[in-house]
Amino acid sequence: MTDSQLNVTFLGMCGNQTATHEATSLLFSADGTRVVVDAGPGIVRQVYRAGILCADVDAIIITHSHADHSGGFTYLTWSNFYDRLGGAEGPDTLHVYALPEVLAGLEANLRFAYNPATFQFGIEWYPLSASSVTSFSVGPLFFKSVPVEHSVPNVGIRCDYNGRSVSYSSDTTYAASFVDLAASSDVMVHEAFAGNSLSELAARTKHSTAAEAGRAAQAAGARRLELVHLFPPLLSKTQELSAEAAVEFDGEVNVPDELSRIEL
Ligand SMILES: [Zn+2]
Ligand SMILES: [Zn+2]
Rounded to two decimals, what is the model's pTM? Predict the structure, then answer.
């Protein structure tokens, strides 16, 4: 790893927690800055397994309220405190980004469990727009969010650093807003909840098929597509899902292993 690299670690890549897999979550890191995007129930263990401490996290972005994306937020924040009890050092401030109603829920949940005034670090809460693009920086990482199409309000994310870019759809049907945000990304991380044979289930639950993910990557001009948020019964069908996406997308398609890392 060099300072000029943008790194993305797949802390989870599944549509839900299972006996062997964790819900989809990404760790962006570059030049000593670390940002967690989505925090499901297994997030604390996955952060440690990725080789860092919860106290090392500079910012947390929660895309939407569903517990496979938000359910570990309180515990991740608590574990930041706990790491420091054990002598770890970390940033003075934890920055938290989410849609306004999600932010309110996260803060209420945290206060229900613990008193953040007793933490060794401050927490800053930043609302993302539910209707337009929000731009913000965490250290040298530049982020944008945009509303996408899910069963509850949700945002897709783009991260740019040193001329490299990675976009993440979160949970969505094919969303033109996300395709625009992700234009010319080096890597598009797109949910692929189901394959063509379960397209009705994907549509009903406001998720994408692998083919729709391929269509989004093609329309955005992405170089590479990573399929995540798989319906658990499809974890053994990754080659089929990749093949269905590749029908729509000219670039490289992959289903990442949990805790694998992209270095750009
Ligand atoms: Zn969802
Ligand atoms: Zn989800």
Answer: 0.98
